[in-house]
Amino acid sequence: MNSLRATLLCAVAGFAGCESAPPLTATQIETLETRHVQGSRDEVLRAASAVILDQGYYYTASDHAAGTVTAAKVPSSMRDEYQRNGGMTGPVIVNMVSIWVVQATPAECNLRVQYRDFGRVVQSQERVSRFWNEVQRRVLKDAPEPALPAPASTGATAP
Predict the structure, then answer these.
(1) Which residues of 6-26 are buried (b: 16+ CB within 10 A; e: fewer)?
(2) For 142, phi and psi rounded to 5 degrees?
């Protein structure tokens, strides 16, 4: 009995010393997940959609007019179970990514990226930044070349 009491006291003391961070507010989560990208909404949406595929996800829903794409990826540790259970009919065993692109100014968009692993929102500034960097790289790579200035006129006329 004394050993049980000692174990319980140790457990309670251990929990009392644990501090957990308060949950983030909706505004804090939105700020964590949103980045500014130079480019038109269509360019950014196209680039973000390509990055989703590059990361090994497949599209599950898309609405071009709303600027949203949702995609899923089955982690390798869950592929056998996923296939045995007939895919999406079972419990949440996939990882998801969702994006939302909104034109903020004529030259810039807001890109919101949200990751979910096994149904839980992942609040990772690193993952969002990595995604943003890839989108920005694609937008800049695909941007049209600046127009070359017209040749200067010499004032001479051709015969």
Answers:
(1) eeeeeeeeeeeeeeeeeeeee
(2) -90, -5
The closest alpha carbon to 128, from 110, 109, 108, 114, belongs to: 114
pLDDT recorded at residue 25: 86
User: How far apart (Å, rounded) are the C-alpha atoms in residues 85 and 66?
Assistant: 32
Return d(Cα 138, Cα 38) in angstroms, integer. Answer: 11
**Protein fold of 24-142:** TATA-Binding Protein (3.30.310)
Q: What is the pLDDT of residues 78-98, one digit of tens each?
A: 666 666 666 655 555 788 999
pTM: 0.68
Q: Mapped to the 3 state alphabet, what secondary structure does 81-94 carry?
A: HHHHCCCCCCCCCC
Domain parsing of the chain, residue ranges: 24-142
pLDDT in tens, 42-82: 999 999 999 999 998 989 999 999 999 999 988 776 666 66
Round to whole Å and give the CA distance between 138 and 50: 9
